[in-house]
Amino acid sequence: TLQHIFKEIFKASLELQEDDHRKALLVSRKKQSENTIVTIKGETVGDGIQRVIAGPCSVESYDQVNEVAKAIKKQGLKFLRGGAYKPRTSPYDFQGLGEEGLKILKQIGDELDLAVISEIVTPNDIEKALDYIDVIQIGARNMQNFELLKAAGSVNKPVLLKRGLSATIEEFINAAEYIISNGNGQIMLCERGIRTYEKATRNTLDISAVPILKKETHLPVAVDVTHSTGRRDLLLPTAKAALAIGADIVMAEVHPDPAVALSDSAQQMDIEQFEHFMDELRASGLYKDVTKSSAV
Amino acid sequence: TLQHIFKEIFKASLELQEDDHRKALLVSRKKQSENTIVTIKGETVGDGIQRVIAGPCSVESYDQVNEVAKAIKKQGLKFLRGGAYKPRTSPYDFQGLGEEGLKILKQIGDELDLAVISEIVTPNDIEKALDYIDVIQIGARNMQNFELLKAAGSVNKPVLLKRGLSATIEEFINAAEYIISNGNGQIMLCERGIRTYEKATRNTLDISAVPILKKETHLPVAVDVTHSTGRRDLLLPTAKAALAIGADIVMAEVHPDPAVALSDSAQQMDIEQFEHFMDELRASGLYKDVTKSSAV
Amino acid sequence: TLQHIFKEIFKASLELQEDDHRKALLVSRKKQSENTIVTIKGETVGDGIQRVIAGPCSVESYDQVNEVAKAIKKQGLKFLRGGAYKPRTSPYDFQGLGEEGLKILKQIGDELDLAVISEIVTPNDIEKALDYIDVIQIGARNMQNFELLKAAGSVNKPVLLKRGLSATIEEFINAAEYIISNGNGQIMLCERGIRTYEKATRNTLDISAVPILKKETHLPVAVDVTHSTGRRDLLLPTAKAALAIGADIVMAEVHPDPAVALSDSAQQMDIEQFEHFMDELRASGLYKDVTKSSAV
Amino acid sequence: TLQHIFKEIFKASLELQEDDHRKALLVSRKKQSENTIVTIKGETVGDGIQRVIAGPCSVESYDQVNEVAKAIKKQGLKFLRGGAYKPRTSPYDFQGLGEEGLKILKQIGDELDLAVISEIVTPNDIEKALDYIDVIQIGARNMQNFELLKAAGSVNKPVLLKRGLSATIEEFINAAEYIISNGNGQIMLCERGIRTYEKATRNTLDISAVPILKKETHLPVAVDVTHSTGRRDLLLPTAKAALAIGADIVMAEVHPDPAVALSDSAQQMDIEQFEHFMDELRASGLYKDVTKSSAV
Questions:
Q1: Do B11 and A123 touch (CB under 8 A)?
Q2: Which residue of C has its CA nearest to A202?
Q3: pLDDT digit string (tens) for A161-200?
Q4: Considering CB atoms only, which of A194, A197, A285 is closest to D198?
Q5: In angstroms, rounded to a whole number, what is the distance separating the alpha carbons of residues A145 and A122?
Q6: Among the CATH numbers 3.30.1380.20, 3.40.50.150, 3.20.20.70, 3.40.190.10, which is that of C34-295?
Q7: Cβ neighbours of residue A281 under 8 Å, at least 6 residues apart?
Q8: D291 pLDDT band (50/70/90 cuts)?
């Protein structure tokens, strides 16, 4: 019928239009050949200098975060992470301190001049987050929470977007496109391990994703060595691999006393382990940080 | 130190409490041995009678939905599905008609006395949805969008919860617990295929999940044969398997003209194929529907 | 260079030839539209009548197998399985009785007029197996042991080929092609679950593989409900799903005393459970066996 | 019954014995704390010096292998790989030159004083291989071909064992145990990517497996960057990651003219690309080879 033909033409033209968009995703290297450099509280990401983000899984108290923050500061690092809203498998697990946690992060960020990063889990909290944190994290479970992505895309604040538990690289890139297409191009992508049959590690770190994301997009790429491995003994070797393959950021969890952590106690480093971790990264010659460069 | 010991005791007692909750999840058979029966516009689900939910992937127009709705009515079925808010991988793909789509569903539901089911993707829309639809669907990508689960748990409306793309059965059950623990026990679980290495089908239908979910929980269990297989030629055989293994609901997509559908055109049945599908299900002797029972 | 061009032409012609073969795989429906019917000791498989294969995981003794065999006989069944060569993850696990096991199977097969099925794990044992067993099983770990496939293809004996742990359907079909292209077309394909991230079951039963294999090839298709689920409580529901979706064979493990079984003790049925299993399959109306047909 | 009790005791004692073996696997670090050093034609592997193995996917002709071998020699490398027996998905794909291929490898190995590595696919060929090659490779599809493992374990020749397509690390370690428990401890383990849902790469390189295998066993560990990624553009970055994380060996495929290669043409480097690959590895400062050390 004529109607069917018109519908087919309409659909075809719609698809053509979508195709055009896809060929020229705003996050793609084809659209922008030079690297996006995200500046956070005066510190750059994506310009070849490699950064370390550290901090506890959950914000539990001022003292707990402060102890970690001072260790971060002592290492000459700038980025402090901490979870205030915790997406947990069970509704009966510790769900985070919420806004109280954001306040603790802000206070310590101000006191020590650190940039603070925390996960936001619902569009309604994006506006509120702007007052407290320097980087909005969107977690693996929310990578395809498109309303959240759109909300994060409509504010002027850097976003750290984590890859979904079993997201393909293509889906990951398209999730970033939801943010940039709403106006916010300050995006960092974070590989955090994918779900596979192998249970020796919590997830399987897809290290190849780093060069692929660097090639396909112009965005900085982070590797979360804590969630990808889920094992304290693998943080250092996987961090080395991440630096060697060209990640812009290594992200790791540090807690003053992991044994009493309210979440992820098996995989966080204590302060001493963190200092050893940083020493070893520097000794390896793999870590291209500004301190070292300027020292030479 | 003493402080460390106190923290350990605090954490241990917190864990004990969580443990208690876990052992007695509200959705578990241990907590409630008899089946939960969900009543939707006078039709029951979960009492041993098997139901079919059908409808287009996306609501595109009144005429399109109406044509499918009449076919459903003709089969003596009660449940019409249709997507108004479409979570799509790319921001440039058709995103659904939004509230306009819900209005079309409501109008047709009223006209033909059908119960309508549609996906809600953000907590803010839950209240609005109450005016239009009879069942709130929570999609695979939002299975661990915990704020959405909590919002759905705080209203008095049946919820169809789909399993996440790579969610374990344990995570799936815990996602349902987020809903019930907020007060809403009218939950139906929907197996819709999991992500595996095999690409002959869009996802891999985890048929064993049905008896496991029926054993572990007291909730009705649906099988979405469309999204699990992604292949029109597999809808009928997998629907038979779903009925044989004891699913309460079979869910399948029907479009008046799949070739011009704005989403999922490769996997939807047209009206004629749908009639054949229903005829074959009835002829197989597997489909325990009320019509048949009363006929005998 | 000219040499390069010649090599490219040579390679292209080689690929064209391979392409031709692929388009017309000997196992494909395109090559042979009617079903292959395999006849084993007078019993047919693949002609629409559904069969049950049962027996212990491992052959442990004459008495053990005999007890199961008598239960099988009592059910009017014909097929007895039992492992003589056991591929085990650890070299220190029980490796099977070897040829001694084959002898026990043969003796019992002769005494009770049952067809016996056993796995062969190395090309050198194929010839020997001909004297003892009625069906050569090739296990999941050997699905791409191409030398074994070729050896099995060069004898005149039915072969039950199991899908590899993470084999695609395409690889599975090609493995069968290795057998048929060596001259032996008496092949039965067996879906036995694939390896996924989900650990609620030992493997994930890919039930959709059954209609795909029936459509793509002309070979009989079996479902091994024991290895796919690894759970005794799921044997009956998955067997029903397998029968409903059109499997030619259901395969399940039975042991007189599973608690003392030398392998797979958690997933085998005892004799009483097996009788209940068969009763329920018959009561379900799903099981199209000859006895029932002739009885009607 | 008494018999049942005796059987349970027998089984329990059997399991205890197996347990003992498992706790002290011969390949485990618990059994031997120092690294196993495998010496091949005078070159060591496992002593901290990192090695590169290169060569074509398939042996196609004397000239083809010779051209690659000379490039390897020019780089000061010692190890030449090449497939003579090719396990291929389809029986109609090029299956390798067989013994003819082994002869070519031997001749070139002799002429250029290179150690040659080739895959053996059936127990019957192990003895023959001893005359031609310096390292027996056991491929991914044969990782649980236990008869082949036993045969490789009973000769005095180094073995390179590849991880199965979807083998767990535990299964991989146990496969090595099959070899060592038959008397041959000259084993190198090779991570070559695992099968996951992600299709941007041929397989997913499980980089974390390297430190786990180094920790759990005393064996040298290789990373095959070609088969894990299946992409020429990822060979260099993944090789860097492998060196940084502590792999003893990097393995990559090189072909004089990949476009006309009879297998894997999309992922092999040509000579020029290989030279660039080696230059970049050396320039990265990651590659701990003996030449460099002695030069300093």
A1: no
A2: C197
A3: 999 999 999 999 999 999 999 999 999 999 999 999 999 9
A4: A194
A5: 9
A6: 3.20.20.70
A7: A52, A236, A239, A240, A243, A250, A287
A8: low
- Nearest CB among B21, B92, B121 relative to A146 is that of B121
Round to whole Å and give the CA distance between B210 and C244: 15
pLDDT digits (tens, 9 = 90+) for A93-107: 999 999 999 999 999
Q: Do D196 and B199 touch (CB under 8 A)?
A: no
Helical pair D235-245 and D209-216, crossing angle rounded to 10 deg? 30
Whether A166 and C197 lie within 8 Å, measured CB to CB:
yes
- Contact of C266 with chain D, judged by CB distance below 8 Å, is answered with no
Q: Does residue D268 carry a pLDDT above 80?
A: yes
Nearest to B18 among A10, A14, A90 (CB): A90
Within its chain, how far is the Cα of A134 from the centroid?
Answer: 13
Give how far D219 is from chain A: nearest CA, Å.
18
- Judge contact between C244 and C287, C-beta under 8 A: no
- Within its chain, how far is the Cα of C291 from the centroid? 23
Q: Extract the tokens encoding A10.
A: 């309409």
d(CA C133, CA C109): 8
Mean pLDDT of A134-155: 98
For testing the chain A interface, which of C165, C166, C195, C197 should be mutated: the one with the most A CBs within 10 Å?
C197
Helix (H) or strand (E) holding B81, with range, is: strand B79-81
Using CA coordinates, name the residue in chain A closest to C197.
A197
Q: Which residue of D has its CA nearest to C6?
A: D260
Cβ atoms of C138 and C164 within 8 Å: the answer is no
Which of A5-19, B123-137, D83-97, D105-119 shows the lowest per-residue confidence on average (mean pLDDT)? Answer: A5-19
Q: In this complex, which of B170, B238, B245 lies closest to C240 when CB atoms are compared?
A: B245
pLDDT at C291: 57
Structure-token pair, residue B254: 């029907």
B196 touches chain D (CB under 8 A): yes
In this prediction, what percent of chain C has a pLDDT beyond 70? Answer: 95
Mean pLDDT (chain D, rounded): 93
Give domain limits for chain A.
1-25, 34-295
In B, which residues are within 8 Å of C228 by CB distance?
208
> Which of B28, B146, B162, B262 to mutate: most A Cβ within 10 Å?
B146
Reported ipTM: the value is: 0.93
Distances (CA, A) of A220 to A32, A142, A224, A251, C176: 13, 20, 13, 13, 47
Cα–Cα distances in Å, from D282 out to A48, C193, C198, D54, D269?
A: 20, 46, 42, 16, 17
Low-confidence ranges of chain B (pLDDT < 50): 292-296
Let me know: does D164 contact D144? Beta carbons within 8 Å: yes
pLDDT, tens digit (0-9, with 9 covering 90-100), for C83-92: 999 999 999 9
